[in-house]
């Protein structure tokens, strides 16, 4: 299977972390069609036009949460979704907080940095929603161990690692302090989870993606990919 994925995409990162934690990496390859992605033509691959996209022998699957569910069902003996209905509900709540309240709002707010005249009102609205999400996370997180409690990673951790990475590394670029700091459970969790080998791998990949974006490496790769694609189309 092929996962169309980018280093800095938090939605892609959560699926990659799940694959790493389930120890099924050999069944996947990771690619990013640069020319299509950065030219807005990813819809040629999938109508939604966003990564991640999972290419299987049976067809394409978009949307990170749907892909995550598919992978869990594909390897039920390695599932990261808990063993009881209540455990699964709690894991899904944590994952939803990460996706909807944190990643979605931060991702949209960062989009204002790519326009000539950023709208400060939009930035403030979206970052306020992210702050609200962090406060909800503080209430739902386990006191110790992994996100849902205990020593075993779940899909909640896979979603929260890239979400909290964005709180830590990218929100300050919008002039907003990392909202995790000062919240006992969330700050403690973020410190603990970074010691996990799979979380550390994802953080390193996202750092690599952020560095490439900031130092111009990504832009150069995109330019080269676009030029190669133009030659192929002639």
Explain what you see.
The chain is mainly alpha-helical and about 230 residues long. It has two domains: about 1-80, Glutaredoxin (3-Layer(aba) Sandwich), CATH 3.40.30; about 85-195, Glutathione S-transferase Yfyf (Class Pi), Chain A, domain 2 (Up-down Bundle), CATH 1.20.1050. It is about 60% helix and about 5% strand. The protein has nine helices and four strands. The longest helix has 26 residues, at about 85-110.
Residue ranges: pLDDT <50 for 5 or more in a row? none
CATH topology of the largest domain: Glutathione S-transferase Yfyf (Class Pi), Chain A, domain 2
Q: The biggest beta sheet, please?
A: 4 strands, mixed
Strand order of the largest sheet: 2-1-3-4
- Overall structural class, as computed from helix and strand content, comes to mainly alpha
Number of strands: 4
Strand content: 5-15%
CATH class category of the largest domain: Mainly Alpha
Task: Provide a brief overview of the structure.
The chain has 234 residues and is mainly α. 59% of the residues lie in helices and 6% in strands.
SSE blueprint:
Elements: E1 2-4, H1 10-22, E2 29-31, H2 34-38, E3 53-56, E4 59-62, H3 64-74, H4 85-110, H5 120-140, H6 155-169, H7 184-193, H8 197-215, H9 217-233
Parallel strand pairs: 1-2
Antiparallel strand pairs: 1-3, 3-4
Identify the notable features of this structure and list them briefly.
6% strand, 234 residues, Glutathione S-transferase Yfyf (Class Pi), Chain A, domain 2, mainly alpha, four-stranded mixed sheet
């Amino acid at each position: 299977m092929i996962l169309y994925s980018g280093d800095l995409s938090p939605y892609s990162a959560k699926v990659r972390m799940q694959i790493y934690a389930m120890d099924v990496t050999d069944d996947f390859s990771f690619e990013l069609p640069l020319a299509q992605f950065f030219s807005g033509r990813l819809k040629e691959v999938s109508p939604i036009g966003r990564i991640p996209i999972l290419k299987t022998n049976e067809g394409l699957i978009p949307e990170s949460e749907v892909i995550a569910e598919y992978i869990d069902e594909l390897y039920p003996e390695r599932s990261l979704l808990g063993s009881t209905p209540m455990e699964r509900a709690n894991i899904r709540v944590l994952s939803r907080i990460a996706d909807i309240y944190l990643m979605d709002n931060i991702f949209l707010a960062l989009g204002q940095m790519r326009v000539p005249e950023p709208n400060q009102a939009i930035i403030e609205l979206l970052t306020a929603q992210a702050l609200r999400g962090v406060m909800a996370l503080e209430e739902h997180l386990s006191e110790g161990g992994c996100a849902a409690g205990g020593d075993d990673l779940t899909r909640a951790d896979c979603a929260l690692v890239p979400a909290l990475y964005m709180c830590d590394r990218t929100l300050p670029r919008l002039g907003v302090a990392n909202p995790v700091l000062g919240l006992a459970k969330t700050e403690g969790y973020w410190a603990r989870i970074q010691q996990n080998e799979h979380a550390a791998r994802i953080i390193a990949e996202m750092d690599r993606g952020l560095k490439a974006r900031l130092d111009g490496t990504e832009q150069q790769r995109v330019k080269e990919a676009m030029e190669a694609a133009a030659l192929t189309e002639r």
